[in-house]
Amino acid sequence: QQQVKQSPQSLIVQKGGIPIINCAYENTAFDYFPWYQQFPGKGPALLIAIRPDVSEKKEGRFTISFNKSAKQFSLHIMDSQPGDSATYFCAASKDSGGSNYKLTFGKGTLLTVNP
Amino acid sequence: DTGVSQNPRHKITKRGQNVTFRCDPISEHNRLYWYRQTLGQGPEFLTYFQNEAQLEKSRLLSDRFSAERPKGSFSTLEIQRTEQGDSAMYLCASSLKAEVGYTFGSGTRLTVV
């Protein structure tokens, strides 16, 4: 059972474009939704995260949009740059009284930003 | 302290051999996690420590796998009698008690031949 479904699998945009990556979750107990960026040969790095009490969060060029009723959330990258080319993962977890932060990841989106 | 350190970075082993990986978390982080990532997939949770206590283990962690975190500092992940299906990137991450953002290491890539 895949609890977090991510799309598209790959995405190619031109420099300056706005790639959008989407994720859908099934478990309504999830209450923390981070996005991670991973470069080849490196571990994932936390990019931005959101909780379901807000519908949008911005950090620099990265924005998360969150739709609780649809159980969907998405990552937007404004003014994308070739250096943003990486694999992006959405994830979700539930805070069991502060004792467990196990993440369930999507399968990833390989983003290529052409110069 | 520059982050989560994992050693070795790469390990090639013959099927049936035992391997051990080490993770040194960020020093003030009391939570430590092991994940496994195969090609084209997202990381999958294996196990979780809070200080020295192993609080959760995934069903992915068969009897051939064992993880320890003595004294709540570094952690080791041992795989006994390795199989080709164990080939993957093994990622370690750590976090603070009151923080949900993980810091991942660069991983150990295991190849079983």
Task: Describe the structure in your own words.
The complex is a heterodimer of chains A (115) and B (113). Chain A is mainly beta. Chain A is 0% helix and 50% strand. In chain A, a hairpin with a 2-residue loop joins strand 6 and strand 7. The relative contact order of chain A is 0.33. Chain B has 113 residues and is an all-beta fold. In chain B, 0% of the residues lie in helices and 50% in strands. Chain B is built from no helices and eleven strands. Chain B has strands at 5-7, 10-13, 19-24, 31-37, 44-50, 53-57, 65-68, 75-79, 88-95, 103-104, 108-112. In chain B, the strands form two sheets. In chain B, strands 2, 4, 5, 6, 9, 10 and 11 form a seven-stranded mixed beta sheet that branches. A four-stranded antiparallel beta sheet of chain B has the order 1-3-8-7, with no helix packed on it. In chain B, a hairpin with a 6-residue loop joins strand 4 (31-37) and strand 5 (44-50). Chain B is globular. The model of chain B has no long low-confidence stretch (mean pLDDT 92). Chain A binds chain B through residues 4, 6, 32, 34, 36, 41-46, 49, 89, 91, 93, 95, 98-108, and chain B through 4, 31, 33, 35, 40-45, 48, 50, 55-56, 91, 93, 95, 97-98, 100-107.
- Spatial extent as radius of gyration of chain A: 14 Å
Low-confidence regions of chain A? none
Please mark out the parts of chain B with pLDDT under 50 across 5 or more consecutive residues, or reply none: none
| Element-by-element helix/strand order of chain B | EEEEEEEEEEE
Question: What structural class is derived from the secondary structure elements of chain B?
Answer: mainly beta
Shape type of chain B:
globular
Helix content of chain A: under 10%
Please tally the β strands of chain A and state the result: 11
N-end to C-end Cα span of chain B? 35 Å
Radius of gyration of chain B: 13 Å
Main sheet of chain B? 7 strands, mixed
> Based on helices, strands and strand pairing, what is the structural class of chain A?
mainly beta
Dominant shape of chain A: globular
Q: How far from one another are the termini of chain A?
A: 38 Å
Mean pLDDT of chain A: 92
SS elements, strand count of chain B: 11
Q: What characterizes the major β-sheet of chain A?
A: 6 strands, mixed
